[in-house]
Predict the structure of SWIRM domain-containing protein.
Amino acid sequence: MDNPSSEGSAPRRTLRRKAVRKNYDENAMDEPIETSKKKFKTKQQLEKETETEALIALSVGFPIDELLEDEIRAGVVRELGGKEQNDYIVVRNHIVARWRSNVRVWLLKDRIRESVSSECEHLISAAYEFLLYNGFINFGVSPLFNGYVPEDGSEGSVIVVGAGLAGLAAARQLLSFGFKVVVLEGRSRPGGRVYTQRMGGKERFAAVELGGSVITGLHANPLGVLARQLAIPLHKVRDHCPLYNSEGEVVDKAVDSNVEFGFNKLLDKVAEVREMMGGAANKVSLGEVLETLRVLYGVAKDSEERKLFDWHLANLEYANAGCLSNLSAAYWDQDDPYEMGGDHCFLAGGNWRLINALAEGLPILYGKKVDAIRYGDRGVEVVSGSQRFQGDMILCTVPLGVLKKRCIKFEPELPRKKQAAIDRLGFGLLNKVAMLFPSVFWGDDLDTFGCLNDSSIDRGEFFLFYAYHTVSGGPALVALVAGEAAQRFESTEPSTLLHRVMKKLRGIYGPKGVVVPDPIQTICTKWGSDPFSYGSYSHVRVGSSGVDYDILAESVNNRLFFAGEATTRQHPATMHGAYLSGLREASRIQRVVNVSRGYPRKPVQRYSGVSNDVLEDLFKRPDIASGQLSFVFNPSTDDPKSLGLVRVCFDSFEDDPTNNHLQLYSILSWEQAQKLQELGESSNESKLTYMVNTLGLKLMGGNAVLDTCGALISVIANARKGRSRTRVVARQ
């Protein structure tokens, strides 16, 4: 390692040595067989790589030159502020970047040792353990993770209340830590406020989002990680969003630009005003301050400009799921510094694909509405109807709206401070009308378009439309209803709502000569009256602050824990915030168990590698063999999507004195293997082309397949010996 610079510049970071064996890159098919071409990196290259890794770690939430408070509490270094801390940060950033480069593969500590100096062994262990048990690496739904989850639940038992994103994330993480887990869900499905509904029939259908819909910011977003692990395409929500007035005309660009500029300037002025007001700013609403400033600065004075200004207000109410008259002028935007960067995206096929993958294999009991939660020194108990569930700890992930309604009786009662925070925070409403049409009459090039309303009180009614035709499988539109309009929406007949939204659509497209057909099917949400949510998502209400999110996240007596979007100060009102809160609480529960033991946690024994002999032994008895191709699968499951391995044997070269065959491998599903079999007597070259170009399989060498697929190889080998505990499901 280099010594700190004496030139007055920042200390240099640890220089890592060349890796012994390069890890497989899923984006480069033939990289594993070209590792011998890799050159030693120069000092300058390593320094540049270290800077890049620091930026990746920064995007995940780590400061560039400091430790997180959790790292300090965990004692990852012996002395703060010195060279050891500097070296630890480099190692930590390297581990984060290394896993983020291929999130489908479980990153083993041995892989880190290949690329970090042996002088840093204690730092490797400290950083790896911290990142692993705090949910920064090796989380998610990759099928290749199955071999690393312990089969025994020796760490204790946890009851998770709620199978939304927070509950699912926590349950999976706790299982991977070695806990016994049961999830109680009041609904008949997982996902909570993330709800994808299939509309239509066999001939024309679409998957639309009735709840959480957009992945807001792809950079370092854990939901983006899940999508990568499942190979689900993401569609960027395009920036073009035309606004139409009540006559169906596109709003003049100059007027639109001027009003938007004025609106943003007023938001800047709000920040200045609250600075001058100090603590008094928390006693007034954002709506009050904005209207006062609008009048003072003469913004949107005529009626047309006012309609456009109202549209921006409605969009602000949509972003916060609350009326501007309720939002705190002081703290409504307290989470802005933590926004995820990058594009906003739709998930192809719907968010249910993430939800189903997270729920797969978890012990979830549906239809279990929780009536009471009891906690004490001897453990916890959850009451659901006539049933009782007992465990060591409880993780409550129900929405803030349910806590506000006091639907669950806590025994003993929640601390006054926590109950006060629950009462102070806001929990607003966003409703939708989802419509499936016979055709895409609005045009293929739009993901969103907006509509102005004639009166301020109706500004949030159908003010924005999301077009799902690019990702849903059919011509679907979703109309959003925000603010006061969302509240009135709840008590309005669906037929009346449909009449209004169709009148608006025909008012836009009719003057253009476009015939707007009647929808094939429509769905109106009513999240405010849903007994398992009583609203949509949280916001900082007048009198509240970001501190209340932290209070909601606090555990009670190390027995009762809380997760969900309303427990994260940095990422409230987002799907990724809910997911991250689940990872956070799983780590917190693990730490509590460690402290109660009085000694550090003994690491769960995980897979540490298989030898080439195991791989060779598998292919001595392949499940399918055809020409140069041979396949092996897990014999204990009939799932058509279960993963296995294919080996491709190439003939030896004439001038090769060893007469060895070149062998390449790839991961594939049973379904993909069947498709290859359907090619029949096609040439081996044709099958290989089909594998790579049509199925998109990535070929890798023997060393790479051991690195990448070691857990899968181990699972298949153990299953052949009759030791697998995989659940059997029917192949279709």
Q: What stands out?
A: Residues 1-39, 602-606, 653-659, 723-732 have pLDDT under 50 and may be disordered. The longest helix spans residues 253-277.
